[in-house]
Design brief:
Blueprint lengths: L6 H45 L4 H11 L10 E4 L8 E11 L5 H5 L1 E11 L2
Length: 123
Amino acid sequence: MKSENGQSLVEFALILPVLVMLLFGIVDFGRAFHAYLTIDHAGREAARAASIGKDNAAVKLIAKNRATSIGLKEDWVDVSTTSRTPGTEVQITITYPFNFITPVLGPLVKTIQLKDTTVMTVE
């Protein structure tokens, strides 16, 4: 009968990369979900501000201030409206570049764009 002293070490070495990739994937999914929820909230706050008559610069600043946890920049916020008369709609679109930290997936995918659009009626 042969010795099996190193068998569990070899099996662990074979499964460890799979476990590490799974862990990084879970972390990346959590980060992406947090970023999307944050830009969704910032978009709603910005749309509300635009619907009550704030100008575009103030709307972009509100969106930026509501998304400080992800480092949202004002350049990534787009305010689309033809006029701000009551009954018309204002549309806020936020595009956020998301980078993966997963060792294999990160260099392959580079950056994805998370996008959220919020439409609200001007009061």
